[in-house]
Each structure stands twice: as C-alpha cells, then as structure tokens.
Amino acid sequence: MSREARLERLLEFLNRSPTPWHAVSAMAERLDAAGFRRLDESQAWEVSPGERLYVTRNGSSIVALQLPHDGLEALRMIGAHTDSPGLRLKPNAAQLSAGWLQLGVELYGGALLAPWFDRDLGLAGRVHVRHPDGRIEGVLLQVDRPIAIIPSLAIHLDREVNNGRPINAQTQMPPVFLQGGDKADLQRLLLEWLEEQNGTVGAEILDFELALYDVQPPALVGVGRELVASARLDNLLSCFIGLEALLESDGSQGVVLVANDHEEVGSASACGAQGPFLGDVLRRVNAQLGEPGDEGFIRLIQASRMISCDNAHALHPNFTDKHDAAHGPALNGGPVIKVNANQRYATNSATAALFRDLCREAEVPVQTFVTRADMGCGSTIGPITATELGVPTLDVGVPQWAMHSIRETAGSRDVEYLTRALVAFANRPRLA
What are the record keywords, sorted (predicted)? Predict the structure, then answer.
C-alpha cells in the first residue's frame, strides 16, 4: 500500500468529516465496504468467531471489531476520539446586529479562538426533523461552501490588538451570516439545505446540533509535502490511522477500534469514554464467545491491551522553550509515547515497553513526550478507558503543531509510521 494513496484517503476523510456524526458515517461506510456487519444495540446479537462487526452510539461514536477465529482470549484495542474543539450553534442561534443576521455560538472544548477570525466558514451537523407522515428522523447536513465569516476589527480601531487581549466568545465570535436578514431566515435556509441534500420535503425542524467549520480543504504542505494541514487533525487523524490499521490487520487476532465522542469536554456521556459504550459492547461479545460471567470478562480484559491514540505536542521551532529539552517530539520523527507521572496519560513502563517493541518490529522510529514540570498537562481517553475497564493502556500519538486551532499541522510521514506500528499490534500473537 503506497504512502501517497494513504495520504489521499486521509485528505478525503478529513474533508468529509466536519463533525463527529460525519466522521462516524464515513468510517461506517468504509467498514461496510470491507464486509463488516453493522449491529444494532437495541436488538439481540448473534456473533460468531472470525466475524467483522461494528456498532455506533448516538451516531457520533463507533466500536468496530475483528473477532478471532480461535477463542476470545485477548483483544488488541485501539482508541481515539471523533470530536474536536470549535464553535457550535446555540439553539436560538439567529440574532440581529447592525443590519446583519448573525449566528450565536457556544464554545465546544478548548478552542484556540484567534485563528477563527477571517476564515471561510461552512455549517454542518445533525438535524432532527418531523416528516409530514409524523416520522421523526435525524439527518446529516453539510453546507460545504462559505456562508459565514467572523471579521476581525481593523488595527486602526484596536491599536493594542497585537499586544494580546482576551477574546469575548459571547460578543466577539458570532459570525455574520446574511445581510439584511431576519431571524426567520435561518430556519428557512436550513429547510432549503435539508431538502437539497436529503430530499426532506415538507419537513419540520425539531432540533439540531450544528457547528461552524473552515471550508478550506486539507492539504499536503511544504516543498517536499512533508506536512498535513487541516482542521480537526486532533483527533480525526487517529481515527483514520486506527481504521487503516484495523482494515489492514490479517484477521488472526481479536482487534477492537473504538472512537468516542465528547473527549474534548471530559468524556462524561453515554457515548464518551467515561460512559458504558465500549464496556457494553465487549460484555455482549464475551457473553457469546468468551468465558461467561464477571470472572471470564475480567480475565479477558486483563489479558488485553489498549493503545489510546491522540496527537502529541510537537516541538515548535518558534517556541522551543515550551518543551522539556529532552522531550521535544519532531514532526516526521515517528509516533510519540506520552508519559505523565500524575496519570494524565495511562502509559506505564510495561505498556511503553510493548509499544517500543512493536515499533522495533515494524521498523518505525519512536519518540517520547513529557510536559515541562512547570506546565499543566492535558489528558485523553487513555486514563478514562483504563479506569472504566481496567485494561492495561498506554497513550501515544502523532506529533502536531497548533493543537485546537481551526487549522492544525502534522507530519505526513508520521501517518505511515503509526499505521505500521498499529498493524503490528493488531497482528501480534502474544501481548505479554
């Protein structure tokens, strides 16, 4: 499989995934094409050894499984998350100011706000409608052309802007949307777009979860195309790499890919890593193929391993002092093992040793990140999943710049590196 072909698939996936619902839809489409069978959580399951299955929850989280042919003894789990920081529309989003219809927004997660100004913004998400026959349905919407913008204030009117000032999300972030528009125009336009994209003639909008997003497409950047620049690399890049590894696994072992929603806001939801989604799926599968009862499930989990994949902070050439001198991962230097003594990452020496050995086997370079001792450390689904399930876990990620910006940057060679390491993990006969 060529590196260039993989990168083209990545760019297509990023372009099709402006929201978690779109990302899960795109992943499910690839799983369907690869022969995976979709399960419904509300129905009884019948699963067989060697089957390839997947299940979604809330349309924004997904668990996909390659079941082993010879007994459910240990699982190789790969974790990621589908959500990214950004601007979500408020329920009563339409507001008027100075002759403009604007959109009231709410911050989702820890978004870096300054880069949102003067960008071409589209609109995407999930809308629930009532059809004329009374049927209620959730449909995806993606307005992939620039329909809104958040204009900067001219420097002549704010001479201190380059000296740094706080940004007020309530008063300074609502984008302009339609000149001379009225509040009713938002509802009208949403209905028109829904009819155009989904054929929902005569439908009534009941509710929505919509987000603004940058319509500038992802790109390979640099003289040697060394970089991937795109929105939502944190953490759609890990979702893509995990899916690639699952599809390239040889099917000899039990492999699980889980991509949870709501990581950027704490993971505490029915479909987040702190919720029961992954545990529910694994218990139902174990009840049919593994040793029954709590005893059998605990034995399965303790024999399994989880690699939580979420991007790491790469050494920034303009801000080298923001890293510990011995722990500054380089773009295109290979996947990064993320370590934190206070358990903000789930890595320990045993799980790190496993990953280093996998990288050796796959001929992949490997790096380590530890935050400076005088700075706070972020977290991800790794410690949460380890806490909920008890599965031995480590946190790794592709190094990137500009985390939580509207446009982030990663190394194009690192996509291949981490994929190869995860394929080696998926195919490894023994985990300990």
Answer: Aminopeptidase, Hydrolase, Metal-binding, Metalloprotease, Protease, Zinc
